[in-house]
Design goal:
The complex is a heterodimer of chains A (about 325) and B (about 300). With about 325 residues, chain A is an all-alpha fold. Chain A has one domain: MetI-like (MetI-like fold). Chain A is built from 14 helices and no strands. Chain B is globular and about 70 Å long. With about 300 residues, chain B is an all-alpha fold. In chain B, α6 crosses α7, α10 packs antiparallel against α11 and α11 crosses α12. The chains are: A mainly alpha (about 325), B mainly alpha (about 300).
Amino acid sequence: MQLPTQESDRGWTGTMDKNSFLRVQKEENKISANYERGLFKDVLISLRENKLAMCCSVILLLILLAAVLAPLSPYDPDKQELTNQLARPSAEHWFGTDELGRDYFTRALYGGRISLSVGFLSMVLSTAIGTVIGTVSGYMGGRTDAFLMRFTDIFMSVPSFLLMVVINSLFPPKVWSMIVILGLFEWCQIARITRAETLSLKERDFVLASKHLGASHRQLIFGHIIPNMSSSIIVAGSLAVARAILTESALSFMGLGVQLPKASWGTMLQGAQVYIMDMPTLAIFPGIFIVLTVFSFNILGDALRNALEPKMIK
Amino acid sequence: MVSIFSFLIIEAAPGDPVDNYVRAGMTKEEIEDIKREYGLDGNIAEKYGRWVLHVFQGDLGNSIHQNRPVAEMIGERLPNTLMLMGSALFLSLTVSIPLGLWAGLKKNKLADNVISFISYLGISVPPFWMAMIMVIIFSLKLQLFPSGGMRTLNVYTAGDLIWHMVLPAFVLSLNNMAVFTRYIRSNTISQLEEDYVLTAIAKGTGKRKVLFRHVLKNCLLPIITLAGINIAGLVCGSFVIETIFSWPGIGRLAMEAVGNRDFPVIMGYTMFSCIILITGNLLADVLYAVADPRIRQGMDRDNG
């Protein structure tokens, strides 16, 4: 848009001047409206345009709701009904029953509780570790930065899955130890992202301004830097949940994760392996849950990235 | 130029730390191991030092379970694993390059959407579940491929081997395939916007020639690095896939060792995996330097 210059102003009539002012004012309104809408609504609008992401959030919401409301199911996930083993899916048992006559649908819901909570909590842990290390590293710079980043590099290049296998084969894993182990091995990417963001944020004017106004390091980091990279953290977090659920299910499938009688989706698949010949549905249903959840988190993560980083769209 | 060189060093550097770290992890595990088995943790450092010393002499110790040298057990299974990993890598590259290029060309059209959707799925599907589904469909229902093993008893032909390799290699390659496809797609899109493409077209170069001669070359360079990084995924994947398809590689050996608490074997396996990893990364760096004249020049200038 070209604003009328001084010379053309003089040449034009007054009404034209008003028009051009109107135009400027309109644009200003648009921008301020954008701020008023807030981040959340902005994201919502941009998500609504992406049908696939919309579908995924609905699916995710359904799975989450089902897992939370699992106790509403008329069946007890651990109650064995030995007269009704390996039943085919029916109106009574939606997914059939497993080798001990337990309702498979209910078990899948309770498995979802474990899988999702392991995924979420380990994401929270890894995000916390990653954010602290990344921010401190980027903020301090110099030798601290070099040391922390080498440390991260080392962690990144280690085949974490193998180490998890070794650790879990030595200590019989529990749900909380799974969360800790997954969290401890997944923070590297988040550390890298937050470090890069911190590096650019700490040179921005508003941070420099508050620094020169006498803000403490803590205020700068927690009050200015971390809130301003929350969008990248959220994106990385949603991808981390997907990864954690995948890793957890693989470990549980190998018998090195969540142990019976508690069952995650991976544990259920491990049990289903034996009956793959006569009851393939046992293997299919929990897998579909995993795929849907992980797929949705991946798509949502990418959609959020597109929504939060306008430059990525083009 | 110096920065590229230092980048190369950092890229190649994980080699040492990996070893260091894994050994450090090992000591800790060994502590637990000794504590549990003997109820004391006296001379861990000494024992660990001995293990390291033996490793450098090429002696990985004896398997507790089978009472055979670990190096021998790993040695006889290593080629099988490498073969599986190699074919999976080859498969994922040959599928993902054309798919990624095509999707990048038809950005936001139907073909792109379908390919992107499938590659998202490929990332989200747990490989072990895919393996189960493949076995159900192709081995149990259609009876097309064997559900496991490496060769039919007493048959030693290449065809038989490939026939057994189809399912495991496909499942193993799936994840990489999806990652590569997405990467090549976004690369193609960004490369097509570059000025040199415009120049080439303006000069009257054919579209096909621009695509295959110029764009493809620039897209493939980062893939070399990516493939090097993803070897870690292949190693971990082969661990799972070999177990499911009862492929006689080192991954399955390790899984059995985990079941038997056969620590020398587990340690030997972890070490060998790291060696594969480091070699892969190193190979990727060398290949990259060979393929990219910019880096090659930088190295020459730094060296001389």
